[in-house]
Each structure stands twice: as structure tokens, then as C-alpha cells.
């Protein structure tokens, strides 16, 4: 562990307008940094057991309700000393979403990356859960393109018109405190670690914190966690 220090996130995800949504640490960089240390100390990692599950979730994409396919894998890896034959086993969970044949590949990549990060305590120097959702939203807004800003201004004008006509607030319905508490309780009951939890949120809703969910998404997420008992 002393030979691999903190790794900076080297990839980013953007929306369809080209605006950056969040950064991530790639599996390629994680594996590349560890490979030299493993070769030096004659260590190998390989999967010895894979449990796979496949299901659909209802979510939204480009303002349309869709059923997104999710592949979940629970992988048992063996870390072996090639000289002595001594070994230990560790487990990791990965999620992947793909409309064709890459769901398992994505899930295995995520499981492998987070197994390495957690086993060898590799940090990235930041944590999305330490940043409030309003701060993340402000950062996201500042990185918007001119087209996105014009669209936002048009939406604000439409909302003001609607409010002046109906007297009602048309802003999106955000997750409630009761829903956040329920999600937190279910997360603890299911013993989902923070890394797998963020990976699941990103795969299902492209967010890094439950505070960024809508009430409908939060209800779907609660139903999913309840079914995963």
C-alpha cells in the first residue's frame, strides 16, 4: 500500500449538452498504478466466483420515462502470493447499465475497481458526500454552455408566467427529509459501503448524492433497496 498513494480522478461524465456532471477515477488508472507493485512483490488477483443478477428500473432519460436494464455482480477475488501460495479472498459488488451486451462488462469493471480501491485504501482526495447538493448544483450551473444558459432562462420565464397565472410553484419536487432518512436506514441495514452506494446512484440516476434525487426517484430507490434484502 505504501507504494501507491492518492490517485486523482482522471475521467468526467457530461450530459447531452456537453456540461460536466461529475468526475471519477477510472479502472484503467487504478489497475495501472497497482500493476507495478504487484509485479514487484509477485502478487496476482483473479476472480474465483461471480454471482450475477439482472433487473429493470423505471427512470427518466432526456425527460422521458424509460425502463433501464441494470446488471449487478457480486465477485469474489483471490489475492495470491505467487512465491508462497498464500492467499486471501475479498468480495466486491458492481453495477452496470447498458441497452445491449455490455452490462456485465461494466459491472465487472466497477467491481474490480472498487475492490482494488477499498482493499488497498486508495483515496481520491475528495468525497462527493461531503459537498451539499446546492453547492454541486451551483458548480454544475457555472459550467453550463451558452445554449444551456439560454434554455434555463427560458424555463425561468415560463415558470414565472405559470406562477403569476396559477399562484403555484412549478419548481421540481425534490427529495424529502423523510425519504433521505429511509434511504440511509436501508443502506445501513443492507450494509452497502459508501463506494458501492455512490456507484449505484451513478448507474441508476447519474447523481453522486441522494440529495440530488427527485421525490419520484427517491421512491423508486427506496423500493429497490427494500427488494434487495
Précis, in short:
The chain has 229 residues and is an alpha+beta fold. It has seven helices and five strands, in the order E-E-H-E-E-E-H-H-H-H-H-H.
Please provide a written account of the structure.
This is Single-stranded DNA-binding protein. Residues 144-156 have a biased composition (Low complexity). The protein is of the alpha+beta class and 229 residues long. It has a single domain (11-133, 174-227), classed as Enolase-like, domain 1. Helices cover 44% and strands 25% of the residues. It is built from 7 helices and 5 strands; from the N terminus they run E-E-H-E-E-E-H-H-H-H-H-H. It has a 3-stranded antiparallel β-sheet. A two-stranded antiparallel sheet has the order 1-2. The protein is globular. It starts with 10 loop residues before the first strand and ends with a helix. 17% of the residues are buried. Residues 140-159 and 165-171 have low confidence and may be disordered.
Number of strands: 5
* Level-1 CATH class name: Alpha Beta
Give the strand line-up of the largest sheet. Answer: 3-4-5
Distance between the termini: 34 Å
How would a textbook summarize the main sheet?
A: 3 strands, antiparallel
Q: Helices and strands, in N-to-C order?
A: EEHEEEHHHHHH
The gross shape turns out to be globular
Label this structure with key terms.
Enolase-like, domain 1, two-stranded antiparallel ribbon, 3-stranded antiparallel β-sheet
